Automatic annotation (TrEMBL):
<dbReference type="InterPro" id="IPR050583">
    <property type="entry name" value="Mycobacterial_A85_antigen"/>
</dbReference>
<dbReference type="InterPro" id="IPR000801">
    <property type="entry name" value="Esterase-like"/>
</dbReference>
<dbReference type="InterPro" id="IPR029058">
    <property type="entry name" value="AB_hydrolase_fold"/>
</dbReference>
<dbReference type="Pfam" id="PF00756">
    <property type="entry name" value="Esterase"/>
</dbReference>
<protein>
    <submittedName>
        <fullName>Alpha/beta hydrolase-fold protein</fullName>
    </submittedName>
</protein>
<keyword id="KW-0378">Hydrolase</keyword>
<dbReference type="GO" id="GO:0016787">
    <property type="term" value="F:hydrolase activity"/>
</dbReference>
Length: 250
């Protein structure tokens, strides 16, 4: 079985050119599903903190199993790496690199992927995924490019005041479907901005998104602000958009 190319797990690494970020390249990794064929078009999941999603979230391992054993439609995963020293500057809406990062994502990264891989360009087949501030920037990308992105996975999103204000400034979000979760033990989490109740932050974000017409699948359960919690939740999150029986959004 392991020698059959159908079951081979394939991950390619690339350097995507970026003029917007004033860099030569940005590192990404691309997971190709079992049975991948370049003439077939695939849904695509774009992950912030790409290295963490692959190494700690085990997103490729989860996906391989879900496609082979649970009969999911194959899809491609793109992990976009980030320099942890610049993460807040790029991911937070008030970060000094945020505007450029969001523009890079929509105007350089996505076109590069669509030129080099058979990923679908329909906004319902593009999924943004992120943990903590990665969830924040995923929402920012969708808010600023509403014609491109309609699907978001947010794992314990860091929805500080600046993010809530960004939601409030948005026009109708009736096109947006968002899977959100938060751990009940995240009510006293120390971040680089201070100590926050992430349960309260996510409840507020859900409320404001719903007021704008977004469709939300919202989950609270026991869990801490770490990959041990998020990794277990990833199959459910992916299944909301990619599984054989998609979740109902409210």
């Amino acid at each position: 079985m392991s020698n059959n190319p159908l079951f081979k797990r394939t991950i390619h690494k690339h350097e995507v050119p970026s003029y917007i970020l004033s860099e030569q390249t940005r590192s990404i990794r691309v997971y190709l599903p079992p049975g991948y064929q370049p003439w077939i078009s695939y849904p695509v999941v774009y992950c912030q903190d790409g290295e963490d999603f692959f190494n700690f979230g085990r997103i490729a391992t989860h996906t391989q199993k879900l496609i082979l054993e649970n009969d999911w439609e194959p899809y491609i995963i793109v992990g976009v790496d980030v320099d942890k020293k610049l993460r807040t500057a790029e991911y937070s809406p008030d970060g000094d690199r945020n505007e450029r990062y969001v523009k890079f994502f929509a105007e350089e990264l996505v076109p590069w992927m669509e030129t080099n891989y058979p990923v679908r360009d329909d906004p319902t087949d593009r999924i943004l995924a992120g943990d903590s501030l990665g969830g924040t920037v995923s929402l920012s990308i969708a808010l600023r490019y509403p014609s491109m992105f309609h699907r978001i996975i947010s794992l314990s999103g860091a929805f500080y005041d600046v993010s809530i204000e960004e939601i409030k400034q948005a026009h109708t979000l009736s096109h947006l479907h968002m899977w959100m979760n938060v751990g009940l033990q995240e009510n006293n989490f120390s971040s680089d901005r201070g100590t926050f109740d992430f349960v309260a932050l996510n409840r507020m974000a859900k409320q404001e998104l719903t007021l704008k017409g977004a469709k939300i699948k919202y989950i609270e359960k026991d869990g801490e602000h770490k990959w041990g919690f998020w990794q277990v939740e990833l199959p459910d999150a992916l299944g909301a958009f990619l599984g054989p029986t998609p979740h109902r959004f409210e």
